[in-house]
Amino acid sequence: MVTAEAQKKVQLQEVNFYYGDFKALEDINLDIEANKVTALIGPSGCGKSTVLRLINRMHEVAGRTRVEGRVLLDSEDVYSPGMDVVGLRSRVGEIFQKPNPFPKTIYDNVAYGPRLQGRSSRDELDGIVERALRQAALWKEVQNKLKTSALELSGGQQQRLCIARTLAVEPEVILMDEPCSALDPVATQQIEDTMDSLKKDYTIIIVTHNMQQAARVSEYTGFMLIQETGEPGRLVEYGLTSKIFTMPDRKETENYITGRFG
Amino acid sequence: MTRQSFHEGLKQLNEEILRMGSMVVEAVDLSTQSLFKGDRSLANAVIAGDDDINELNLWIEGKCLSLQAQQQPVARDLRLLHTCLLVSLHLERIGDLAVNISKIAKRLERTSGAEPYMELLRKMSAQALEVLRQGIKSFADRDARLANSLAEIDEPIDEMYKEILGRLLHPKEEEASSAEWATHIALASRYIERIADQVVDMGERIDFLVTGHLDGKYFDNDPDQRFGE
Predict the structure, then answer these.
(1) Has this prediction a pTM greater than 0.90?
(2) Rounded to whole angstroms, what are the CA distances from A96 to A93, A159, A170, A174, A241?
(3) Looking at this predicted complex, what is its ipTM?
(4) CB distance B212–A257 less than 8 Å?
(5) So what's the architecture of B3-211 in CATH?
(6) Of A21, A211, A240, B189, whose Cβ has the fewest other Cβ atoms within 10 Å?
């Protein structure tokens, strides 16, 4: 099935991952569908965020790490020797738990990435900034104050600004690591709505502790677990969100999502 | 409300469904007895008792709503709440059908030539009670196989129902056949047949509770259709 194959944007195949001698992930097999939202859930320390960082090689900033198996982006191994890591990270953007805008103007935050890519024409940058802010559902609120400091925005606006900053470099995949955990319910709702409108153009992978959020925003859900302290994290179950939250196949998944964990 | 009291709430809901099941079994049993014995006091007892069944149905509905609103149930908890809501509604309707049978019992004259019909109605009632008991058992035991076999146990009831209607349309000479009498018998057999049908539908819900199957397949085979949409 050629079409089904083509829809797999990111694939993890038999992935093991080590921090030094510690095996943090074991035998992760995961196919991420293009233009869908995929959620990773599971208790703290099960390796959800590590899975995210494997995709854009962000774990490498942490030092001594080792990856076994294959991580593919559009069928291309991101760990192949010829891979341009900077290019990879512009194709795979990331939104973090706490909004982290630069202490610059709203405009300069969004234009930061494109400028690094060598795009300096004022007209072009204006267009990019407006498009990114519109996609991040922030344009209407900031269009008249683009030259004010990003730090004057509310937490929810700052997080949407960070999404706009990521979108400005036209990534293909957006990784979100607990993007709403520092936000109030209204801001959370706005981010979730933004995710929903973004997925027609992007592939989104979100790590969240909030199971209801995973159920609301995602089409696919993966449940990860470590059996005991010191053991590596494993992907216990992966499938349609509607199925996982109604009729999970695995007892561990059911116990976790129904609050009968531990 | 903590998770623990949520789980207590689910347990209570399960117990109340079973209690409602016992009440409905008794209502069906007494209403058909009142029909065969011509016992008006039995019939009145069933009619009066239906209020309790209706009230319990409302309590179950309210409990399901508040637990869904406050606890965002998923997986087996979600399936249990969904199933309780629908099973409760089926049981409530069966209670109403028992009331209908009791009302007929109060009006039905004892007529000569009625015996063959009464014999068939007795058999139908006994079979319908069996379907009902097994239906409730399949919920209590979370037994999908039993729930799915209810349609089979229901089959003879449909056959007897057709037989009664056929006889009423073409009565033998010695059999009574006033229009009023025939209507009562036709309706009584129809109500008994409907009771068993309600249980068969209930069985489909119990199959969902246990297996997650709706109408024999998963409801989520379309990846673009999100649950709840």
Answers:
(1) no
(2) 10, 9, 18, 11, 23
(3) 0.73
(4) no
(5) Up-down Bundle (1.20)
(6) A21
In a mutational test of the A interface, the residue from B11, B67, B72, B220 whose CB has the highest number of chain A CBs within 10 Å is B220
Q: What is the mean pLDDT of residues A156-160?
A: 95
Chain B interface includes A196 (CB < 8 A): no
pLDDT band at B227 (very low <50, low <70, confident <90, very high): very low
Per-residue pLDDT tens digits for A63-75: 799 999 999 999 9
- Alpha helix positions (H), chain B: 3-37, 40-71, 75-107, 115-140, 144-169, 179-211
Q: Which residues contact A218 (CB under 8 A, 6 or more apart)?
A: A36, A37, A38, A39, A206, A241
Which of A33, A36, A257 lies closest to B74 in CB terms? A257
- Closest residue on chain A to B222 (Cα): A240
Distinct helix (H) and strand (E) counts, chain A: 11, 10
Domains and CATH numbers, chain A: 2-101+175-257 (3.40.50.300)
Q: Cβ contacts (< 8 Å) between A241 and chain B: which residues?
A: 226-227
Between helices A122-135 and A106-116, what is the axis angle to 10°? 110
- Dump pLDDT digits (tens) for A176-216: 999 998 888 988 998 999 999 999 999 999 999 999 999 99
Question: Choosing among B7, B211, B226, which should be mutated to test the A contact, i.e. which has the most A CBs within 10 A?
Answer: B226
**For position B1, what pLDDT does the model report?**
56
Partner-chain residue, chosen from A215, A242, A254, that has the shortest CB–CB distance to B76: A254
Query: Could you give the 3-state DSSP secondary structure of residue A105?
Result: strand
Of B102, B7, B87, B121, whose CA–CA distance to B46 is shortest?
B102
Residue pairs between chains A and B whose CB atoms are closer than 8 Å: 53
